[in-house]
Each structure stands twice: as C-alpha cells, then as structure tokens.
C-alpha cells in the first residue's frame, strides 16, 4: 500500500481568495504539510497582513494581489505562481462573495459583482491554470462550490446561480481535460463557522436558524474539518476522481 497516498509535499499550490476565511486556513494547512503555496487577494492591505501572520512559520509561501473579476489578474496570478514557485500542480478557485437578501431586492450591481467574482473569476483562473496543466499532462483544479449550488436556499439567488454555474464548470472542464490527466473537482461546503463579510453572524436570525434546522449534524463545520477533503483532491489519493462535487456539509445535502 502506498504510504504517502495523501502526500502534498513540494506541490506548487495556488489559492485564490486566501487572505481570509477558508482560503487562508487552507493556505496554512497546505504550507504546514510541505506544499509551496501562493496566496492571493484583491485586498492588498489584507494580503500583506496575512503574509505577516504566516511569516514566523517555516512556510514556503508567496503572495500576489489579484482581483479575479479581471481576466488579466487571473492570468498574472497563474504566471506569478509559475515564476515564483517553479510550477503549478494544484489550483484552488476559492475567491468568492455573497450578498444575502430577498431575490426581488438585488440590484444590477449586486448581481454583476457576485457573478463576476464567483463564476467568471473561477472560469478564467481555471482556464489559465488548465493551459499549463494540459501542457504538463498533470494537475488538479479544485473549485469551492456550495450546497446552494444544488439546493434552494432562500435569500441567496445570485450566489446560488453562480455556484450552480461553478458545478457545471467542474463537470465540463473535467470531461474536456481528462485525456490530459488534468482533474477538476469541487468541494461544496455547507454552513461554516466562519462568516463571509455580508453574512450576519447572529445565530438567532431566521436565516441562521433555518441553516441549523436543515443540517442533520446540528452545527456549523469548523474550518479545520475542510482540510482533509481539499488535501484528498489535491493528492494522489484522488487520482481517479474527476468531475465530482464533494459535499462537506454535516448532511445538509442529504436532508
């Protein structure tokens, strides 16, 4: 039996949207396991602070300012990763935004901001990463989806549409790139114990109460509980897995 089945040591890993939340936690996890990690964010000030937080650790880590709404920034993020880390084995599309409100109250700018970040940004990051991986005949692209991409959750219409689109990107790119040994998969989180800027942390709101009522395990997932699924999809342990969306949601999708 392969003793290093889940080994990601020395893999070059780029994570979009990794100056906070899940992306930041994943960056720390991958770096601690010996991967070379490129973190990124549109927010330069926040990215600098994140780099400072990791500086005292013996991590092989670099940073690039990138707003995934810009195709050129997506291109530069991949190029900087190749130049700085000397390669690109894993790209994690994670940059995202959510705005919670009833469907009839979204503005045009709300819609554009969510779709451009969550769907357009994923496509171009994956496209540029995929070009390199196709040439190399190897690679893993992991997209952060959501239970909202497959289920109806009130007050998330544009976000849900973006994540539904992400699920189809995963399936379509996986089919197209399988012959090149480039795998494309997704992780669909449920409700994480880490709130996006636009989400209200008050657990007594109707939205939060509904979330827990529909989660069989009755709690939010901790950031550390997502490490294993992402490492699995980044490692040789998932070498015959592509086009899949792994739900890490405390049973929400099964309810």
Describe this structure in words.
The chain has 255 residues and is α/β, with parallel strands linked by helices. It is built from 7 helices and 7 strands; from the N terminus they run βαβαβαβαβαβααβ. It has helices spanning 21-32, 44-55, 71-85, 108-136, 157-177, 206-213, 227-234, and strands spanning 12-15, 36-41, 60-65, 90-93, 139-144, 182-189, 245-248. A 7-stranded parallel beta sheet has the order 3-2-1-4-5-6-7, sandwiched between helices. Strand 5 (139-144), helix 5 and strand 6 (182-189) form a beta-alpha-beta unit. Helix 3 (71-85) runs parallel beside helix 4 (108-136) and helix 4 runs parallel beside helix 5 (157-177). The longest helix has 29 residues, at 108-136. It is globular, with a radius of gyration of 17 Å. It starts with 11 loop residues before the first strand and ends in a 7-residue tail after the last strand. The model has no long low-confidence stretch (mean pLDDT 94).
The secondary-structure element order is: EHEHEHEHEHEHHE
Through-space gap between termini: 36 Å
| Residue-averaged pLDDT | 94
The biggest sheet, with number of strands, parallel, antiparallel or mixed sense and barrel status, is: 7 strands, parallel
Indicate the percent of residues in helices: 40-55%
Unreliable sequence segments: none
Multimeric state of these chains? single chain
Strand content: 5-15%
Number of helices: 7
**Dominant shape:** globular
Report the radius of gyration as a whole number of Å. Answer: 17 Å
Helix/strand/pairing class, anyone? alpha/beta
Strand order of the largest sheet: 3-2-1-4-5-6-7
Q: Please report the total strand number as a whole number.
A: 7
């Amino acid at each position: 039996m392969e003793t290093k089945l889940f080994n990601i040591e020395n893999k070059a890993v780029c994570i979009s949207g990794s100056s906070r939340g899940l992306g930041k936690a994943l960056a720390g996890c991958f770096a601690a396991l010996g991967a070379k990690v490129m973190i990124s964010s549109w927010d330069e000030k926040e990215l600098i602070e994140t780099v400072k937080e990791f500086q005292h650790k013996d991590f092989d880590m670099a940073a690039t300012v990138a707003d995934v709404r810009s195709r050129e920034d997506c291109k530069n993020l991949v190029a900087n990763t190749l130049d700085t880390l000397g390669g690109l084995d894993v790209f994690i599309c994670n940059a995202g935004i959510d705005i919670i409100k009833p469907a009839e109250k979204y503005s045009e700018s709300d819609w554009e901001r969510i779709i451009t970040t969550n769907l357009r940004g994923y496509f171009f990051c994956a496209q540029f990463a995929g070009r390199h991986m196709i040439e190399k005949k190897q690679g893993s692209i992991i997209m952060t989806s959501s239970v909202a991409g497959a289920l109806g959750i009130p007050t998330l219409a544009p976000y849900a549409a973006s994540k539904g689109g992400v699920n189809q990107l995963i399936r379509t790119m996986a089919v197209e790139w399988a012959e090149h040994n480039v795998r494309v998969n997704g992780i669909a989180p449920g409700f994480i114990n880490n709130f996006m800027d636009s989400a209200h942390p008050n657990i007594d709101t109707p939205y939060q109460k509904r979330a827990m009522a529909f989660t069989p395990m009755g709690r939010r997932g901790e950031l550390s509980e997502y490490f294993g699924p992402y490492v699995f999809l980044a490692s040789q342990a998932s070498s015959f897995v592509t086009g899949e969306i792994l739900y890490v949601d405390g049973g929400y999708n099964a309810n």
